[in-house]
Amino acid sequence: MLTTSALVTGAHSITAVYGGNGTFAASTSAIVVSLVNTARSDFSGEGRSDLVLQNSSTNTVAAWLMNGSAIASAGNVATPASSDWKVVATGDLEGDGKADLILQNITTGVIAEWRMNGIVMLSGANIATASPQQRVVGTYDFNHDGKSDIVLQNTATYMVAIWQMNGPVIAAAGNVAATASTVRAIATGNIGGDAIVLQNSANGSVSRWLINGFTLSSGTVIGTAATSTLLATGDFNNDGVADLVFQSPTSYSVAVWRLNSSAGIIGSAAIATTLSTVSVKGTGDYDGDGRSEIVLQNNATNTISMWQTDGVTILSGTNVATPAAGWKPVVN
């Protein structure tokens, strides 16, 4: 039995060493790299997701360090050089257990990293110049090196690509596959493997792509949500498999599909109907219990709220805060 002392967040190398005896020779295992901390958008490395916001008027970026639905601390991070710079994703590009910010210049296509430590930006660096049609979908560690990789889709060619990252440096890059013009890559997650989830806007069909490196190893149709838009993934029942969150643009009903590792729907439920002014922004594990919460914002009042759910019903709903006009959360 292998026992370890408590490990801080970040990537850790683990090696098993056997000293040998009169029967068996001494041996050393291969190095296994494991990332201690799985919460998305965790800027402080405490194992809980945090919120990042950007002001549509001033362009200033801010971070809220969360403890459940309570803001433990908050502050402005920085203001980009121009209004063309938008926060498009978060991910731990450095492998230090703390999420970093990914920004894209919507005019030039340049993608950049802001390395974060809590609400403090330690450094900023341009990653590469992509086409302005190259849209950042999100991040996920596809090569299991403890560092998030970036998923992109070209809105002109519909090609989906992956950049394997080492800090702000692209260690390797490759195209996965091109979709039909009506199919959009929406999110990433573990659904029986490293997966990209897509939705066809023509018929509502939702699919899972399993990825091996840069290769599309299999594609599976999960189901059809003809009247709802897929918005995010999140694990609501703590089974290690990503579930799917939808919202209807007409009825404003919010629904969850709970999935198994074969991308089968083990349960689906419309968990609530919001006001017409309220929209789902994304998910995260803000209390660190292994279950995702859903983040919403009322576009009329600007109030940001959080739903705790098991994927069947809302267990609790809490208003987090009402920021000043212009502040919008950017949630993976």
Structural account:
The chain has strands at 10-14, 17-18, 27-28, 32-36, 51-55, 61-67, 70-78, 85-91, 100-105, 110-117, 120-129, 134-140, 149-154, 159-166, 169-178, 183-190, 194-200, 205-212, 215-224, 229-234, 243-247, 253-259, 265-273, 278-284, 293-298, 304-309, 314-321, 327-329. A 4-stranded antiparallel sheet has the order 7-6-5-28, with no helix packed on it. Helix content is 0%, strand content 56%. Strand 14 and strand 15 (169-178) form a beta hairpin. Residues 1-12 and 33-37 have low confidence and may be disordered. It is mainly beta. The chain is built from no helices and 28 strands.
Structural class given helices, strands, pairing? mainly beta
Overall pLDDT confidence: 92
Poorly predicted tracts of residues: 1-12, 33-37
What is the strand content?
A: over 45%
How many whole angstroms does the radius of gyration measure? 20 Å
Q: Give the termini distance in whole angstroms.
A: 37 Å
- What is the β-strand count? 28
